[in-house]
Amino acid sequence: MTATPALDLRGVARRFGKRWVLRGIDLRVEPGEVVALTGRNGSGKTTLLRICATALRPTRGGGAVFGYRLVEEADAIREVTGMLGHHAGLYDDLTAEENLVFAQRMAGRPADRDAIGRALDDVALSAERDERVRGFSAGMRRRLALARLLLRPPALLLMDEPYASFDADGIELVNAFAARVAAGAGAAVVATHDLIRAHGVITREVHLVDGLATDRNSHALVGTSDGA
Amino acid sequence: MAREIGRVTAVLWKDLTAERRTKANFNSVVFLAALTLLLFGFALGPDTEALREAAAGVLWLTILFSGVLSFNRSYDQELQGGALETLLLYPGDRRAIFVGKFLANLAFLLLVEAVLLPTAAILYGLSLADSLGPLLLVLILGTIGFAALGTFYAAMASRLRAREVLLPLLLFPMMVPLLVAAVESTSALLGGDALGNSRGWIRLLVVFDVIFSVAAFLAFDYVIEE
Q1: Across-strand partners of A15?
Q2: Contact by Cβ (8 Å): B34, B119
Q3: What is the tally of structural domains in chain B?
Q4: Which three-class secondary structure state does DSSP give residue B51?
Q5: What value, to the nearest 5°, has the Cα angle with vertex B4 and ends A156 and A102?
Q6: With b meaning 16 or more CB within 10 Å and e meaning fewer, what string describes B128-152?
Q7: Helix A113-122 crosses helix A138-151 at what angle (to 10 degrees)?
Q8: How far apart are CA A67 and CA A31, in angstroms?
Q9: Which residues in B lie closer than 8 A to residue A86 (C-beta atoms)?
Q10: Average pLDDT score over residue span A98-110
């Protein structure tokens, strides 16, 4: 019996105005995989992640996340996916802790201060627990957004340029989290230009070009970059 | 159901906490509203009778302008730093977001009105003592329908580039029936009519509140989607 794929996209296309960003993406990600999504600027990496997260509907095509259909069962998909996007999605006038309390309550859970404390510990923001996010640097905001994901580890983790703004510890955190999700029968899709930093975590690379996806051997590519 | 109520209160708490922290929006809206009342007073001239007659209309127009500012502000904080997308990606009924924001906007506007009403009474020589109860009822009923429509259209406009201009363009035409009912009932009450002539208008306000609130609630999921 074949296991339900973490992600199964068939002919996904998306148009913005007259421009087709994605022209027909076929992509299957199995549980346990950490897939790097690469491609030039504007190749549609972010669009593809947003479609998987149900933030955008595909113009054509469809697919499923852990068996839930993309458009018809979007709410079920939101239960099992988590996204670390370009923007941290935080509220400047709330403290770090309040942002996480809000996230827990919006996910339909009671506020769990202990779990929040542990998540803030994990991202090294314990000291800033009661500080307003307005004063946070870009890196601190990304860490807090990561803490939000740690509170509700998804089965399908979607990360858009996760290494941007992170220091070395932050990068390690991101990679460890992706590996943890994959090890727990989940999967991760990481849109990145920085395969070197993803080295050791990614199991496969999918390259987007002209709105289509092609598989690449990531380890060979990372090896080349390392040697450069 | 309990889960969705929890999400409603989370949005309400978040919006009110952010507002309480900054107070910048409340201060600017109240200042602009008081200034509008004052300038209308100057424009209408020193005739106290004319001022009294125009007071209901001026008061509701001022509430409308204040509302547009507060509705836009309500989504501004969602647009900063991509919070709206994060908000929409939480599992659950998205209409909980509408209800939470509607309640936050309603509370904000009622607070603004708590300052505006006595200000209008001083500037326009109004005697509120005889009809304060019914007057507050009209203010609350008018504001419920206004906040429901405003929260809905602000969500629709939040995806658009010129949202500050588009929100009044979308909102004000829809507000006309509610505005007429609110001004007529307020005017009757300020003129010393203790619920006599205003009863019909107040019933109409209730009808508009129900229609606007239910329609906005049901359609919110469609307008918030990108």
Answers
A1: A20
A2: yes
A3: 1
A4: helix
A5: 65
A6: eeebeebbbbbbebbbbbbbbbbbb
A7: 130
A8: 12
A9: 82
A10: 95
Q: Is the dihedral of CA B52, B53, B54, B59 positive or negative?
A: positive
Counting other chains too, the contacts that A148-152 makes at CB distance below 8 Å and 24 or more residues apart are A148/A99, A148/A100, A148/A103, A148/A119, A149/A82, A149/A84, A149/A177, A150/A119, A150/A122, A150/A123, A150/A177, A151/A100, A151/A103, A151/A104, A151/A112, A151/A115, A151/A116, A151/A119, A152/A82, A152/A103, A152/A104, A152/A107, A152/A109
What is the rounded CA–CA span in Å between residue A105 and residue B100? 13
This complex has an ipTM of 0.88
Nearest residue of B to residue A90, measured between CA atoms:
B83
Q: Which residue of A has its CA nearest to B76?
A: A91
Domain that holds residue B19: 2-224
Residue B97 structure tokens: 């977001």
Alpha carbons B220 and B213: distance in angstroms, whole number: 10
CB pairs under 8 A between A and B: 84
The alpha carbon of residue B181 and the mean position of all alpha carbons in its chain are separated, in whole angstroms, by 15
**pTM greater than the 0.80 cutoff:** yes
pLDDT per residue over B108-128, tens digit each? 999 999 999 999 999 998 888
